[in-house]
Amino acid sequence: MATTDAHVPPGAERLPLRERKKLRTRQALIDTALELFSERGFDGATLDELCDAVEVSKRTFFRNFASKEDVAMAPTQDLWAAFLSDLETRETGGGTVLAMLQASLLAALDRMTDEGWARRVRLSRRLAAETPSMDAHGLHFCDRTARTAMQTLRRRLHTEEPAHDLRLRLALDFLVAAFRHALDAWVSLPGDPDRRALAAELGTAFTAIPEALTFEATPTPA
After folding, report:
1. Residue 56 structural domain
2. CA-CA distance, 192 to 180, in Å (whole number)?
3. What pLDDT score was predicted for residue 213?
4. Does 221 reside within a domain?
5. 92 closest CA partner among 154, 40, 157, 35
6. Which of 110, 119, 173, 189 would you call most buried, defined as having the most Cβ atoms within 10 angstroms of its Cβ?
7. Does residue 104 share a domain with residue 172?
8. Contact 116, 122 (CB under 8 A)
9. Is the pTM of the predicted complex or chain greater than 0.85?
10. Residue pLDDT, tens place only, 38-75
11. Domains identified in the chain, total number
12. Burial class of residue 58, CB neighbours in 10 A (0-12, 13-18, 19+)
């Protein structure tokens, strides 16, 4: 599992050589981890084996990731990092908070231009489905991301009112729920669906949110 062809993200060619090397090493760790864990199971491959395969030290690994779960879930975590970055600068006003959040997530997805990203996400999701520690890690990451997004929204919307906090958190919860549904639907698609297919599933899930809130609890006639 060589590291020589590890992909450097778009725009990275403008970075200093040292930073490009760091990005290559990080990407090689992600790619190799997902291959190893998929072949042997998450618990079947050790951190030592991963570092040996990439020819880096554990110290280098921990400069990039906090744990095996962290490296295995990096593809979706990178998406949410891009989401938080977009949310910091997205124009406010003229729409709902939920629409703003949805636009930021779709913009973040547009930034995942590495052609291998979609495959990495699918590998990661399949591993998470059979690995309880990854599932727990994902929940913790989701909560941490939501808290960061809350802080950003409070600051940018100049609000600290408890009632507003509840509404902001519910908007974030709607966003996350729609994303999870879209991701599950996308992973189950036949073939090798790309990020555009994921964007389409997100669009479907976003459209269903207001419909779900008004869906009447009336049995369908037999």
Report:
1. 12-69
2. 18
3. 93
4. no
5. 157
6. 119
7. yes
8. no
9. yes
10. 999 999 999 999 999 999 999 999 999 999 999 999 99
11. 2
12. exposed
The whole-number average pLDDT for the span 87-108 is 94
Cβ-proximal residues to 25 (8 Å cutoff; 6+ apart), any chain: 3, 6, 54, 56, 60, 64
Three-state SS sequence of 26-83: HHHHHHHHHHHHHHHCHHHCCHHHHHHHHCCCHHHHHHHCCCHHHHHCHHHHHHHHHH
**Paired tokens of 23:** 């990005």
Q: Same domain, yes or no, for 81 and 109? A: yes
**What pLDDT score was predicted for residue 1?**
40
Where residue 153 sits, what CATH number does that domain have?
A: 1.10.357.10
Task: Give the number of C-alpha atoms closer than 13 A to the C-alpha of residue 154, restricted to the C-beta side.
Answer: 14
Contact indicator for 86, 100 with CB cutoff of 8 Å: no
Report the chain's mean pLDDT, rounded to a whole number.
92
